[in-house]
Amino acid sequence: MTASAISAKPREVRESVVIRFAGDSGDGIQLTGSQFSAASALAGNDTATFPDYPAEIRAPTGTLAGVSGFQLHFASRDILTPGDRADVLVVMNPAALAANRKWLKPNGILIANADSFQAKNLRMAGYVENPLEDGSLADYQLFQIDLSRLTNDALQGYGLSAKEVERCKNYFALGLVFWLFERNGDMVEDEIRRKFATKQLLLDANLKVFHAGWDYGENTELFALRYSVPAALDIAPGTYRSIAGNEAVALGLVAAAHKAGLDLFYGSYPITPASDILHTFAGLKEYGVRTFQAEDEIAAICAAIGAAYGNQLAVTGTSGPGIALKSEAMGLAVMTELPLVIVNVQRGGPSTGLPTKTEQADLLQVLYGRNGESPMPVLAARSAGDAFETAFEAARVAIKYRVPVVLLTDGAIANGAEPWKIPDVDSLPTIDPHLLNDVAKLDGALLLPYLREADTLARPWIKLGTPGLEHRIGGIEKWEKTGHISYDPQNHHNMVKARQAKVDAMTAEIAPTELAGAPEGDVLVVTWGSPYGAALTAVRDLQLAGRAVSHANLRWLNPLPPDLFAILQKFRVVLVPEINNGQLVKVLRAAYALDIQQYNRITGQPLTVAELRDAIVAVLPH
Amino acid sequence: MTLATDIALKPKDFATDQDPRWCPGCGDYAILNAVQRALAKQGVPPHEIATIAGIGCSSRFPYYMATYGFHTIHGRAPAVATGLKVARPDLQVWVATGDGDSLSIGGNHFIHMLRRNVDLKVLLFNNRIYGLTKGQYSPTSELGKKTKSSPQGSVDNPFLPMSLAVGAEGSFLARSIDVDAKTLADVLAAAAAHKGTALIEILQNCNIFNDGAWDHLSSKEFRADQTILLEHGKPMIFGANRDKGIRLRGLRPEVVTLGVDGVTVDDLWVHDAHDEDPTRAFLLSRMEYPAFPVPVGVLRSVQRPVYDALVNEQVTQQQATKKANLQGLLNGRSTWQVG
């Protein structure tokens, strides 16, 4: 196929393209999308993806409920988002069209599997007339392709069942779009060979269909030209791979454990969209990783706390409903001052909410959702690649300060993939777990399990099993230093202050806030988490248009960066866009008593560049 | 603190400088003494032991044990202990819990600990009442029990802890009475030697909120006739005169008197603690006062794969067959160069 990559048709060069695949959840849409992304990354494009799939594993075929989508942005420049709207939409059935048409730009390319636009499917998608025939799609460049028939034709004589033939059709579509965007198909062919290694007939059939899709593009009169998106030139040199946020979190924590010389314990209960972290860890036992699939969220964190007491790098991961269940145990970790990383892959809430959709509405929950004064550091990743570094940092400070640390990501980061510049393991900082592992280190003094270090206020992390260091901890208030039970009023006051002071001391770990743009001006956009990419892109656009707009993203949400107050004061307006009803904005207003503006859309979808541009323009002083 | 590894350990080597704060006369004192004696006899030094507890009167246990210890939160001791044991299989881990802690709020962790067969020694203090919250009925309180929260009598049907534990696949199930020092010492020793979850139900008196709850079993006057000490491989005989026994009719146990109607020792149910089939263990767990003498001793002791050992075996095996290469892991399956 590499040979047939030479095409007789003319090409048009584009700087960036957003393509969206949509079909039934059983149509292999996520696989198709990921393979196209990987090929684009290998071609040197910058990429960003957004899988948009339903909570149901297999909703009834042809229904709106069962539509699965995958959006990919690939470009010959640095990009930060999966794109607001699509240049190309590939739909496998009428329901996919009905659910995704709103994402297609005017005059965009619409490739429809015409075979599936039959009475029953049209009815299930809510169409009275066939939209391919009634002129309602006149705003788009419509390409009607009989994917099922063409796939069937290509597989004549293979002796496959009708169902097996039907399941090959996504490779026809993939072959066609590979042709349309000049992607190298070697990787897809390798993947087909790997996937069907033990099923020669299906291997041959899928390869055949993939090639047939390509050839169809080349030979049909339908497509007059191809599109080329050259390799990006403004990407930092280095070795890259594609990574999704959940995997990045797992790798960041394994790297931290390695750098600390500790084994890693991961306690978790399966929950969307965090389960891939568990899956990743389960395959990493050779790195000293133990996974505990608990009976519930509470057991997951409690077992992690037990492992932390037993001197492992302890981690528990979940999504918002799981945090609700873990809250009491999070308080226990605060009280016992043990290192623990708590990962919250946020999804739409409250209650079960929108399990597969993204949201940022758990910030106040992790900051304040516990009984008593229970301060806990909170860090948030801004993108899939950044999740590695943020996870590493969360583990590093948890160990250094002996505290539970919350790491926030969200559904968009968890499942969205982007190119990631792979760090050199040797360049990652070493973490000293600084275990108290010998009674001789006490120099004859009494063991004081709550004696604090001067700078970090950390108590000793005592190596269990050491003779002479037997001690007891627990959730009841502690005497200063000894850690014995105490109901003394003044001691409680002092301990509440000490636990807060320890979190406050962690400001020493926070890097100076990076500003994109001038250090003063009309508007500062402040983000945390996944809106980072869209906000920075919108700010860059407006800077090119001459506006005095800057952007700052916060990795640390508790404690807040010590330089932030001074930065905020240098702008006439501060705007905080979030996928919630206004949470960081509340925190900032309370911390600084400043009149800060907010922008919120809570639809389970990422914020777009266009709406943030509009939102910034709306608050620009006239 | 003790560094005694070569010299013989004494019960006081397992006692802390903290004064127990249980009510005077509480059954917990006897249990604490029995455990400290059993650990001293066992010979594992305090630094190789961890004592984990939930919440409740009995869960203060770790503060009085000179081992590593963790007083956790209500109902969660089995979960914390599971994580600790997986992380540190080199430690012997004991769990102290009560009927409210384990069978109400912590019921889920309790059954899953037993199912997994985590190598934990579990002391279930059953006093059939909530003591620390000052006297509400518990999940083992008898139907109709009048307490502060059930003035007309409890309408909750109770659990039989041993029945629940059989259903949860418990591999070691034993029972003792707080004041029965001999049996308690024996079952503690057997539990310590068991690989897997060793559950000991200790019938414990709360002299403040449920005084005399077990008098029908614990008092010298009734104990011989109203309990039966189970001994593996021996016929089930009980009674002050050792003249009564348990006979099995199919799957129905019955009390018989030796010498009456021609009944001899050969007709009695011979206790097999190692029977893989849990059916008879379940029958034992259903033997309740007053229809039957209540079984004490080891009801069931079978060998099953141990969770924490399996987890660590998989890690060891993967480490032996795969080479950990963090840079390779970060690189993943396919990479590309820029610049």
Condensed summary:
Chain A has 622 residues and is an alpha/beta fold. Chain A contains 20 helices and 25 strands. Chain B folds into 2 domains: 267 residues, Thiamin diphosphate (ThDP)-binding fold, Pyr/PP domains (Rossmann fold, 3-Layer(aba) Sandwich); 34 residues, no CATH class.
Give an account of the 3D structure:
- Chain A is an alpha/beta fold and 622 residues long.
- Chain A has 20 helices and 25 strands.
- Chain A has 4 domains: 226 residues, 3-Layer(aba) Sandwich (Pyruvate-ferredoxin Oxidoreductase, domain 3); 181 residues, Thiamin diphosphate (ThDP)-binding fold, Pyr/PP domains (Rossmann fold, 3-Layer(aba) Sandwich); 74 residues, no CATH class; 105 residues, Rossmann fold (3-Layer(aba) Sandwich).
- In chain A, the strands form 6 sheets. A 7-stranded mixed beta sheet of chain A has the order 11-10-12-13-15-14-23, with helices on both faces.
- The longest helix of chain A is centred in the middle third of the chain and has 20 residues.
- Chain A is globular, with a radius of gyration of 27 Å.
- Chain B folds into 2 domains: 267 residues, Thiamin diphosphate (ThDP)-binding fold, Pyr/PP domains (Rossmann fold); 34 residues, no CATH class.
- Chain B contains 11 helices and 14 strands.
- The interface between A and B is large, with 72 and 64 residues.
- Strand 9 of chain A pairs antiparallel with strand 14 of chain B.
